[in-house]
Amino acid sequence: MKYKIISAVGLILIILINISSCKKYLDIKPDKSLVVPSSLNDLQAMLDDAMTMNLLWPVGGEVYSDSYYVTDDDWKSLPQIDRLMYIFDNEASYSGDWFLTYRIILNTNLVLERLEKIDDKNTDRKKQIKASALFFRSMAHYVLLQEFSQGYTVSSENGDEPGIPLKLKSDINVESSRSTIRECYGVILEDLQKALPDLPNEVLFKTRPSKTAGYALMARINLSIGNYRDAGKYAALCINQGLTILDYNLVNRDAPFERYNSEVIFHLTGNYSTLLDPTVGKVDSNLVNLYPPGDLRRHLFFFQNVDSTWAFRGSYDGSASVQMFCGLAADEVYLIRAECLAREGQDNEALAVLNSFLKMRYDSSFTPRTANSGNVLQLILNERIKELLFRGVRWEDIRRLNTDGGNIVVKRKIQGKEYLLAHNDLRYAQQIPIDVLAQSHIQKNHR
């Protein structure tokens, strides 16, 4: 199935002006001379505009993660912003991650506001469109929070620190300010809770959110803030919707993963970053060696370059794309469920979920994990590293585990100099883009 990209000509309320000329804090302005959407079909078309809504999501978190490295020669040839991002420069961030994601939020607000003015008897469809818009807005605010605010768990004490501007209306003339981290998560979860009852059980296209996607996102968000009880609950609800785990024994070893494969719940891809291009970002051999004999992921996820370095090839985006898949998939949900069971002391139940997943990743040599295999929680966390790399999830895990008492240090080494991102570093909140700071009163991140 091809991407469902629907032209907005004649339908969409807005024209997006060039993001390099920022006004206020968003470089987006509605043109009221355009035709106003007048039907539910028009509003659905706005949400089905995959180029805006599905294909250009933030990647700055993955860029800061520990899944890859670049050589000195490649680093010297990178664009300046990528060089600075790679070494955790104090002022660095991807402005596209900010602007393109707030463009998604603007689109959802326009849909929500216009929906109230359309007189249509099909109330069920109106509810579904509203739920889809709320889902997108919730997820967009959430991913922005992962890049531009400090990490947060329900047990931490930094809930009153600056989060991100919450945009709940389309009027860009309203002065923006940063809500607290705790307020941001409150709105994000509220939007998603409102969406859940009316999200459809089945969708025609995996670029549209379903009830299964709503449960998966609720599980991810609650996991990220250390609310393991709710994360486990929503992961279980998601699994009960009838998830499919791909049997890697049946996957073509010599072709990319199929886009929209049966394991994908909701399809998103990340904005392009040169650092994450497999011709530049190399996978550390120590990571590749975590996959033992019989683990089919070693071949399906990686290929070896002519210089014996390793590159990632396992994106669920499919085809030959260099964009990373950053949507929602069944493997992540199974691992969330297993982790939450382990954290509740239910090791046998956690192992049962883990083994039901792992048997689909190994050849016939697979031996089920038991309590004798080691610390159950650590087994599951290790599988998250191996399964969910280059999806943006690893960055969320680093933030969560460090905020919850971990001590993960991300390291870079360029031209003989080492750069460290320690567990309590203020740079875990990437800087607000410079053009936003220059033309708004939004508070800068502390350094």
Outline the structure in words:
This protein is mainly alpha-helical. The chain contains 17 helices and 10 strands. A two-stranded antiparallel ribbon has the order 1-2. Strand 6 (302-304) and strand 7 form a beta hairpin. The N and C termini lie far apart (46 Å). Residues 1-30 have low confidence and may be disordered.
Class per helix and strand makeup: mainly alpha
- Name the helix and strand elements from N-terminus to C-terminus, one letter apiece: EEHHHHHHHEEHHHEHHEEEHHHHEEH
Mean pLDDT across residues: 91
Level-1 CATH class name: Mainly Alpha
- Tell me the number of helical segments per DSSP (H or I, 4 or more residues long): 17
User: How many discrete structural domains?
Assistant: 1
Distance between the termini: 46 Å
- Strand order, largest beta sheet: 1-2
Spans of at least 5 consecutive residues whose pLDDT stays below 50 are: 1-30
Instruction: Report on the biggest sheet.
Output: 2 strands, antiparallel
Please state the second-level CATH architecture: Alpha Horseshoe
Shape: globular
The Rg value, from CA coordinates, equals: 21 Å
The CATH topology name reads: Serine Threonine Protein Phosphatase 5, Tetratricopeptide repeat
**Helix content, binned percent:** 40-55%
The count of strands amounts to: 10
Give the percentage of residues in beta strands. 5-15%
Organism: Chitinophaga eiseniae
InterPro entries: SusD-like_N, SusD_RagB_dom, TPR-like_helical_dom_sf
Pfam families: SusD-like_3, SusD_RagB
Keywords: Cell outer membrane, Membrane, Signal
